[in-house]
Amino acid sequence: MTALELSERKKKILAAVIDEYITTAEPVGSKSVSEKSGFNLSSATIRNELAELTAGGYLEQPHTSAGRVPTPAGYRLYVNELMERHRLSQLEAETINRNLDKKLNRLDKLLADIGSVTSELTEYPALSLASPSPAVIKRFDLIYIDAHTFIIVAMLTSGTVKTKLVRLPISVEQSVMQKLSTLANANFTGVTEAGITPVVINAAERAANDTKGFVSVIAGFAIEILSEGQTAEAYITGGANLLRLPEYRDPDKAHKVLSWLSEKDHLIKLTEAGDAKDVKVMIGPENVAEELRDSGVILAGYNAGDNIQGLIGVVGPTRMDYSKLAAKLSCIAAGLSRVFETNGEAARGFDKLMIKGDDAVE
To answer: In the beta sheet, which residues pair with residue 68?
Structure first.
């Protein structure tokens, strides 16, 4: 059974089951669906529909006599098509604004503060990450000093200028530097570090008829400066919020998730799936690690300025209220982008952040 084959009635019943399960964390039976969803259907009809949804992989039954719980496929259909879009009230938006204004006031602890505020507002473990956007070299200049010395000047798209003084054990003519400068601009500009491959370097060496290693020196410098400053920073805060959830009452299960999240490299790997423009939801097996197979992750991106991409997110059980949490993260991310755009740096001007209720989550 595919999503296209589900009748509108099945979709409504599936949505009712998931809404109830999000609230109670208990398997949902046909009687509960009938009573709380206002269906004008008999319990037998609802049981048949639940059985077909189970056969189709959207629900599962933990025990023969138990009700149903959603599967990752059920949650995915719910997030994509069925859930009602949550709209923040003016009070909720003002609460987010007030917390941002109060907490985010020191640049050196910005990411930890962002994570702390996000965790407080969502009551879930929150992650925050800032990663430089990949810069590329815009232009090379080789400045000839004398027969044994030249300077490599590289201008990056970020506006940064890097230089390197090169001393040679052999003499070289100025005309050689001019040819090397042309080849460097043709082969090593406009590409990321990964684009400067041995094949590209060898081709440039052949074009320059370079047997002395000049091209390799220039390429090595290009790789060096492109790799600088690309390290992302990531934090997880509010881990204790996980322990209050029924899905993580088993200490071993909670420990497995929190241990994985405590590694910075893991967080960076997780947030690589995020998007600067949209809220992204990853459910169960869609996540990047086996440790998160029974968890849900919601990510929202914001523009931190100066070629820095920021991400915030929450981690919890697959039972999370995706609509409400996505709305909150979207609101927080929009506010952060506005702060950086307006003020240039996060250490100033948080008092100017204004979020306008429903407008913030359009």
So the answer is: 28
206: CB partners within 8 A, 6+ apart:
none
The string of pLDDT tens digits covering residues 60-100 is 998 877 789 999 999 999 998 888 877 888 888 878 777 76
Return the structure tokens found at 89.
Answer: 């009230």
Global pTM reads 0.68
Count the residues in the chain: 362
Q: How far apart are CA 321 and CA 329, in angstroms?
A: 12
* Sign, CA torsion 97/102/107/109: negative
pLDDT tens digits, one per residue of 177-212: 889 999 999 999 998 888 899 999 999 999 989 888
Residue 140 pairs in a beta bridge with: 154
**Rounded to an integer, what is the distance from CA 75 to the centroid of its chain?**
20
Report the alpha-carbon distance of residue 130 to residue 108 in Å, rounded.
Answer: 13
